[in-house]
UniProtKB/TrEMBL annotation:
Positions of the FecR protein domain: 122-217
Keyword Membrane found: yes
Keywords linked to the UniProt accession: Membrane, Transmembrane, Transmembrane helix
Chain ranges passing through the membrane: 91-113
The species this protein was found in: Dyadobacter soli
Record's protein name: FecR family protein
Domain Protein FecR C-terminal: from-to ranges: 264-331
């Protein structure tokens, strides 16, 4: 907290007992986005001291915002018969119009910021990784160009749910009350665990889950068959494409699926086209080939690189290619003297 806004002041605000000056100070303080996490941390602490009735938060919010958007809320009620003065009627109607505008604004803002209020977001830029420790002690390492959405608060009986876009490794802590940890990615695809270590990659047209320790249950939807599930054991790797087709394999060293944490890339008979897509996903860099046949070249091995240019330079040297910059992107050129 800053010297101006203490936790006690925020608690008074949440209780509805803050003075007009305190409310103004808090409003100005929140103009700095760096204070948002402190605000929500205090709100969560206040909620724990003042438990509310359990219920469906999504349903409650939807009903509240629907209530605000109802046209009947903006309708002008009949004026009392005793009102005789035109000037009083004028100001009464003006006040109702102002109230209607305020309600409409609240409804719109509530709809826009509902996710911001309920969830925290952690994101990485191209070429960046980030380690996060969740409130239950679980650890998440985000790969580049990825995002994790986490509930700010939940009921004690709720699952521990997070939403992933991109790629991450999860080290999940088992809780005393045996609450499941659920990672959700695309529609109708999730990974359920109690305590384990695994990685999830959900990019493009497929999702991949690799299990290092423990046991996980992967739920997905297969076209024509509805909801299905598959239980993984350590070393299992499952890939589900957008049609729900499943490929289950075993990996003697499943840690290769999170080797990116150490700045390493492990390829096993991967095509240059696949590697080009990986570079685009992780670094936001597009690689163009002068010879389309280059895309079918196969690559195996472990490579250490901290940037797209480092990785491309090694690949270019391996196959006697020329690497040239193309604005913020690159071109791989095959010399005429050494066709591939």
């Amino acid at each position: 907290m800053t010297e101006h806004i203490t936790e006690q002041t925020l608690f008074l605000f949440f209780d509805g007992r803050a003075t007009s000056l305190q409310r103004k100070l808090i409003e100005d303080w929140l103009q700095n986005t760096a204070n948002e996490e402190l605000y929500f941390a205090a709100l969560e602490a206040w909620e724990r001291q003042h438990p509310q009735l359990s219920g469906d938060a999504d349903d409650a919010q939807d009903r509240f915002f629907s209530y605000l958007r109802e046209p009947s809320r903006n309708a002008n009620p009949a004026l009392p018969q005793q009102v005789q003065h035109d000037d009083y009627r004028f100001w009464w109607q003006r006040g109702l119009m102002a109230a209607s505008v305020t309600i409409a604004l609240l409804a719109g803002l509530g709809f826009l910021f509902k996710d911001t209020i309920r969830y925290r977001r952690f994101a990485t830029d191209f070429g960046e990784t980030r380690s996060i420790q969740l409130e239950d002690g679980s650890r998440v390492t985000l790969n580049a160009n990825s995002e994790l959405k986490v509930q700010r608060w939940s009921n004690e009986n709720d699952n521990r749910e997070v939403w992933l876009t991109g790629e991450a490794e999860f080290v999940v802590t088992h809780t005393k009350d045996h609450r499941r940890f659920v990672v959700r990615t695309r529609d109708n695809f999730s990974v359920d665990v109690l305590g384990t270590v695994f990685s999830v990659n959900d990019r493009g047209s497929k999702a991949t889950v690799a299990l290092l320790k423990g046991k996980v249950n992967v739920r997905y939807t297969e076209a024509g068959y509805g909801q299905k599930q598959i239980i993984l054991k350590p070393g299992n790797v499952v890939t589900v494409n957008e049609k729900g087709n499943v490929a289950l394999t075993s990996q003697t060293d499943p840690e290769v699926f999170s080797s990116w944490k150490k700045g390493q890339f492990v390829f096993n008979n991967s095509s240059l086209l696949e590697i080009m897509q990986l570079i685009k996903d992780n670094y936001g860099v597009t690689v163009r080939l002068t010879d389309p046949a280059l895309g079918q070249k196969r690559v195996s091995g472990t490579f250490t690189a901290q940037s797209a240019q480092e990785l491309l330079s090694v690949l270019a040297q391996m196959y006697s290619l020329k690497l040239e910059p193309d604005n913020d992107n690159f071109i791989l050129i095959s010399p005429h003297s050494n066709p591939i």
